[in-house]
Amino acid sequence: MNTIDPLPAEGQGSLYAPPTAAVEDVGYGFRVGGEVVYAGFWRRAAALFIDSTLVGVAYYAVIIAGMLVVGFGRLSVLEGADAPGMGAIGGFLAVMYLAYPVISALYYVGMESSGTQATLGKMAVGIKVTDADGRRLGRGRALGRWASHLLCYLTLYIGYIMAGFTERKRGLHDMVASTLVVDRWAFTDDPGRQRKGLGTVAIIVLVLGALLIVAYIGIVLAIALPAYQTYLERAATGS
Q1: Phi, psi values for residue 21, rounded to 5°
Q2: Residue 87 dihedral angles phi and psi, to the nearest 5°
Q3: Is the Cβ–Cβ distance between 115 and 20 less than 8 Å?
Q4: What's the alpha-carbon Rg for the chain, to the nearest Å?
Q5: pLDDT of 126-169, one tens digit each?
Q6: What is the mean pLDDT of the chain?
């Protein structure tokens, strides 16, 4: 017979900590029925911005470490010990191509199949990932969801945009993996704490992201326009 774990005593734990759940959770931490707030496109975009930044930082840290190793390997090549040096260079090239997907997979699969059911970015904006019934993902399904992101890239990000207008706010990768992205309090004993709006963190992240995009476009134009003007002047003079 299934048992229900007692609710945590009042005052225990952080008020803002996301709820946790076990894979076969049939007691506290998982409840069927009631209203479910699905995470919309912009809330998910804010989470993705945070997560992509974190994965990118980890990736470039690995690349910098690899460059240091290759630097020592090139010194060996100059001294005549070319085999170790070429091995270091070959290893660095392998790291360049494999590090990002490996880091990304470990991060997303590990976090989304954990008790928090969310990456750091999702936790920051108050959302989590579940299966189609609201339960915690196993590692296999979390890996399938991560791999399904490739379909969103192949569709020129339309797969992500689908989360803005589908019935349960599902992206293409969610449909393929049979997953949902919901408010962190959905399918818990306290669904009334779900929030439909973006929230302060998501708004701040989206504003910062927009400012970075504008700054990037400005830098590109500042470089490209003078270069184009120089090209036109040279073409006019025939030089």
Answers
A1: -150, 150
A2: -65, -40
A3: yes
A4: 24
A5: 999 999 999 999 999 999 999 999 999 999 999 999 999 998 99
A6: 83
Listed in sequence order, the DSSP H helices in 14-170 are 41-78, 82-112, 120-125, 139-154, 158-161
C-alpha–C-alpha distance, residues 31 and 26, integer Å: 8
Write the burial class of residue 226 (CB in 10 Å: 0-12 exposed, 13-18 middle, 19+ buried).
Answer: exposed
State the sign of the Cα–Cα–Cα–Cα dihedral 147, 150, 155, 156. positive
Nearest by Cα to 106 from 41, 49, 149, 55: 55
Report if pTM > 0.70.
yes
Query: What are the extents of the domains in the chain?
Result: 41-198
Residues whose CB falls within 8 Å of the CB of residue 145, separated by 6 or more in sequence, listed in order: 108, 112, 129, 137, 173, 174, 176, 177, 179
C-alpha 165: how far from chain center? 20
Tokens 């990304």 belong to residue: 104
